[in-house]
Specification:
Elements: H1 5-17, H2 20-27, H3 31-45, E1 50-52, E2 57-59, H4 61-88, E3 93-99, H5 101-118, E4 122-128, E5 142-146, E6 154-168, H6 170-176, E7 191-193, E8 201-202, E9 212-213, E10 218-220, H7 223-231, E11 237-240, H8 241-250, E12 254-255, E13 265-272, H9 280-295, E14 303-305, E15 317-318
Parallel strand pairs: 3-4, 3-5, 7-10
Antiparallel strand pairs: 1-2, 5-13, 6-11, 6-12, 6-13, 6-14, 6-15, 8-9
């Protein structure tokens, strides 16, 4: 007897949800129905995929190996169904997008209305994580990641590069003075990132002609929190243009050390999990975002945008 898609879906849902009860809610089925499907699957495979206790479920080694294959099969079926749907109708369905809070607020949210007008049949679910997440565990279709990426099984599409700058509010500078050289930063209140030391390396030339590592007096895990701290006059920060370009134009944040800053840019990628093909709802979302960034091009733009089109998404693989 062959394994069915329902049984694979039940198995994957139980792993992702953490329990049979939660998986049943996710699938819209009864607890007993999911439990029976999982039991049938193990009987057919003649192995135990999950160890069950009164408190938790744990994958066996066989279950861990089979999980990757199950995901591959389900992703392939979804991609095939999506390709067929594309032939007869406009892109539709649920699209889950994850991004760090600043990018979500300053870049994605202003562009949602245009995307929805173009693709009203796509339902959007937006989530915000300021650290790297597992797309599969979080049930995310596409994530926007900022900074260097490591190799993995994820595909990545470059969207833009965003320069980082040292900034402060006029109110802070009025109280504490404008630092005249890099060494003067030691006498100022510096704002930075908690648990992300690479973000506390500022693009300023030091004696070795490299970046300056700072020891912030106030740290936060979110770039948006650091931005708000800077706007409120709490200290000097180093932030990306995509979240501060409007602040600099309005004069609420002022760039420091413009004549000795290094031109360092953060790469911005869209990453997604697909073994073959790209779901049409992902493709049109990334096309729309990339085109929107290109339309905002020019000297006033925060981004140096990528010039490739999303249909060429396949290629490099990242974590």
């Amino acid at each position: 007897m062959k394994t069915t898609l329902d049984e694979l879906q039940a198995f994957v849902a139980v792993v992702d949800a953490g329990s049979i009860t939660a998986a049943a809610r996710r699938l819209g089925q009864t607890v007993s129905g999911v439990s029976r499907a999982l039991g049938r699957l193990e009987d057919k495979l003649q192995t135990t995929l999950l160890r069950r206790t009164t408190r938790r479920l744990a994958l066996t080694e066989e279950g861990r190996l089979f999980l990757d294959d199950a995901r591959t099969v389900l992703a392939g079926v979804e991609a095939a169904e999506d390709r067929m749907a594309t032939l007869r109708t406009a892109p539709s369905g649920l699209l889950r997008v994850d991004a760090a809070t600043p990018f979500l607020l300053h870049v994605l949210v202003p562009r949602i209305a245009g995307f929805r007008a173009a693709y009203p049949q796509i339902t959007l679910e937006l989530s915000s994580h300021d650290r790297v997440i597992d797309l599969l565990e979080q049930r995310t279709d596409v994530a926007i990641r900022i900074g260097a990426l490591k190799d993995s099984t994820l595909h990545a599409h470059p969207l833009a590069d965003s320069r980082i700058r040292v900034l402060a509010a006029p109110a802070y500078l009025a109280r504490h003075g404008v630092p005249t050289d890099v060494d003067a930063l030691d006498r100022h209140v510096l704002l930075g990132f908690a648990g992300l030391p690479h973000l506390n390396r500022w693009p300023l030339r030091n004696a070795g002609d490299g970046q300056v590592e700072v020891a912030p007096a106030i740290t936060a895990s979110s770039g948006e929190t650091v931005r708000q701290l800077a706007l409120a006059g709490n200290g000097i920060a180093c932030l990306s243009d995509f979240m501060t370009a409007a602040d600099r134009r309005a004069g609420t944040l002022v760039e420091l050390f413009a004549d000795r800053a290094l031109d360092i840019r953060q790469p911005i990628h869209a990453v997604y999990y697909r073994n073959s093909g790209v779901a049409s709802r992902i493709r049109v979302f990334l096309d729309h975002l990339a085109q929107s960034l290109r339309d905002d091009g020019g000297e006033a733009s925060w981004a140096q945008t990528a010039q490739t089109k999303t249909p060429a998404l396949a290629g490099r693989r990242f974590r």
